[in-house]
């Protein structure tokens, strides 16, 4: 594996405001990365810097070890061989689907161009719509045209800016999987920008959670969820509730559920007796009719295969629990719960 | 009022109309071409180019067309003589045409500029990301879309120019109005001929306007 894209301490300012602050990342050949964050965290700016649409004021961006952006020195966007899928797709309304896809193939001969167009139409499943115009297509179809158009010239790197934000939720998840398959089949290195973690989880190999112009954690989706680097990441990624607790031993923590001792606390390096905030994910709280510990149903959200219950413990502390959906409890009912925590996510309080 | 003298004068007036249409078509083609160049200059990031184009547009939009026509009629031969050292009669037609092109370019520039600015910025980014340079992006993506959007405005401006071509009267060119007026004077029925000319201008301009309105509706749907 070789590093395809490298950002070294890049900064970007707009007027006096620093949008991106000394941000670094590395992406390997064939890897799909994702920048995940709230709107205004600078993620789209990073993408536009990589594409060459924005200057950088510090640091450098390298593609295949060659600098493409430095302060006051930048390869223009059209010479970067970086493809981009835009949030609003930016399809060319006066060109047919086939011509949209073939637009970037101006250096190919006509038969080569036709062949690549046919190939991509097949890849995105739009062969029947080759002669249609963008406005005649559904949102999902337009999205796939945008993807095919960006892939056609075989760019070194593909950038996707909130590619699914204009689609309805059901379509979003399906297309996310599809896009990942297409990218992997084309062995494309890509960076996706999104505020939607489901989208990020569905597509990316590596996710960088961004906050105020910086990457707070760069990790696989699994690590982000199960080993968040700080409280912000823990809050932002996945659902969960923080409950306060006390470290009672090298492998033990005491929370309202009782003392839990099978967890590994060593790595966190808390002193015995220190107060901590422990993250409880909804899947850590398990419904068990025979458990002596009871909690009252405060709220419930039916999600098909599961209920997401908001439960209140005797102290009033609320926790979330996912429960198989045939356990249909009314609001106000007391139900038995127990904790199934196999690793600890805790931060000093 | 006796309009019977108009029929035998029609062929002569048709020649005038041909002159009017020639001035109109060439003026619009040249004006749009120059106007597009000016619009691209005005939108350019180069401050010199955009300021030069801005000054040009503001200047020509602030002076009367009649002034431009007479000025070009007298000044262009003078400038040519000064440049080449010899007399080069260029004639009323050429000087009028140049005046129209340069004057209308200022108006067409603003229409084209608005047209280009109405195309979403993402279109340009998308084309750049596909490896196109500025010229290709403009020629293949931005201008085709912009011209489609601004066709009604360009036609509307052309209708105004159709009426304004009558100002060539000032330098003695025989356009439709001048042809009609002179025939009326010769025959001694100036009123009939001027009323007829007015009717012709009205019919052509008004029906063209209606057509533009219909076209506008079709283009916006």
Question: What is the number of helical segments of chain B per DSSP (H or I, 4+ residues)?
Answer: 8
Order of helices and strands of chain A: EEEHEEEEHHHEHEHEEHHEEEEEEEEEE
CATH fold-level assignment of chain B: MetI-like fold
Our count of domains of chain B comes out at 1
Q: Over the alpha carbons, how many angstroms does the gyration radius of chain B reach?
A: 21 Å
Largest sheet of chain B: none
Mean pLDDT metric of chain B: 90
Q: Using CB atoms under 8 Å apart, which protein chain pair has the greatest interface?
A: A-B, 27 and 18 residues
| Helical/strand content category of chain B | mainly alpha
**The CATH class of the largest domain in chain A:** Alpha Beta
What Rg of chain A do the Cα atoms give?
24 Å
**Percent in strands of chain A:** 35-45%
Which features does this protein show?
heterodimer, A: about 350 residues, alpha+beta, Rossmann fold, OB fold (Dihydrolipoamide Acetyltransferase, E2P), 2 domains, 6-stranded mixed sheet, B: about 220 residues, mainly alpha, MetI-like fold, about 85% helix, flat
């Amino acid at each position: 594996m070789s590093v395809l894209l490298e950002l070294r301490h890049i900064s970007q300012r707009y007027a006096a405001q620093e949008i991106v602050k000394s941000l670094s990342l590395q992406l390997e050949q064939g890897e799909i990365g994702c920048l995940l964050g709230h709107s205004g965290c600078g993620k789209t700016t990073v993408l536009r810097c990589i594409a060459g649409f924005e200057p950088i004021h510090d640091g450098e961006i390298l593609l295949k070890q060659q600098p493409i952006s430095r302060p006051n020195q930048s390869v223009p966007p059209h010479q970067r061989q970086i493809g981009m899928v835009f949030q609003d797709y930016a399809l060319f309304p006066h060109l047919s689907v086939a011509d949209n896809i073939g637009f970037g193939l101006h250096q190919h001969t006509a038969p080569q161009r036709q062949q690549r167009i046919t190939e991509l139409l097949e890849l995105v499943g739009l062969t029947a719509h080759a002669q249609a115009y963008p406005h005649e297509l559904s949102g999902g179809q337009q999205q796939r045209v945008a993807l095919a158009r960006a892939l056609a010239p075989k760019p070194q790197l593909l950038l996707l800016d909130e590619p699914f934000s204009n689609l309805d939720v059901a379509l979003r998840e399906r297309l996310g999987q599809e896009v990942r398959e297409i990218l992997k089949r084309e062995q494309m290195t890509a960076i996706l920008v999104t505020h939607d973690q489901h989208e990020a989880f569905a597509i990316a190999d590596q996710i960088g959670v961004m906050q105020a112009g910086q990457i707070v954690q760069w990790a696989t989706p699994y690590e982000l969820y199960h080993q968040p680097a700080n409280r912000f990441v823990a809050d932002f990624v996945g659902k969960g509730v923080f409950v306060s607790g006390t470290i009672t031993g090298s492998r033990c923590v005491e929370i309202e559920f009782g003392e839990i001792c099978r967890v590994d606390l060593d790595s966190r390096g808390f002193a015995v007796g220190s107060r901590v905030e422990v993250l409880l994910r909804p899947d850590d709280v398990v419904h068990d009719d025979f458990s002596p510990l009871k909690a009252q149903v405060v709220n419930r959200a039916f999600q098909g295969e599961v209920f997401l219950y908001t439960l209140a413990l005797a102290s009033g502390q609320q926790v979330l629990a996912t429960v198989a959906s045939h356990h249909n409890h009314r609001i106000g009912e007391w139900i038995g719960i127990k904790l199934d925590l196999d690793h600890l996510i805790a931060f000093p309080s | 009022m006796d309009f019977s003298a108009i029929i035998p004068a029609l062929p002569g007036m048709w020649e005038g109309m041909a002159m009017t249409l020639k001035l109109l078509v060439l003026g619009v083609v040249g004006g749009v071409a120059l106007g597009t160049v000016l619009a691209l200059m005005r939108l350019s990031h180069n401050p010199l180019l955009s300021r030069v184009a801005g000054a040009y547009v503001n200047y020509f939009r602030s002076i009367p067309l009649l002034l431009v026509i007479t000025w070009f009629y007298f000044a262009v031969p003078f400038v040519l003589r000064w440049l080449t050292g010899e007399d080069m009669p260029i004639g009323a037609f050429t000087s009028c045409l140049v005046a129209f092109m340069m004057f209308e370019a200022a108006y067409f520039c603003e229409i084209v500029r608005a047209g280009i600015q109405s195309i979403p910025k993402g279109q340009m980014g998308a084309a750049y990301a596909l490896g196109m340079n500025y010229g290709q992006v403009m020629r293949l993506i931005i201008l085709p879309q912009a011209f489609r959007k601004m066709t009604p405005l360009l036609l509307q401006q052309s209708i105004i120019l159709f009426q304004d071509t009558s100002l060539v009267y000032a330098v003695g060119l025989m356009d439709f109005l001048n042809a009609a007026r002179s025939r009326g004077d010769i025959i001694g029925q100036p009123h009939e001929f001027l009323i007829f000319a007015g009717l012709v201008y009205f019919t052509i301009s008004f029906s063209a306007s209606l057509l533009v309105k219909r076209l506008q509706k079709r283009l916006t749907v």
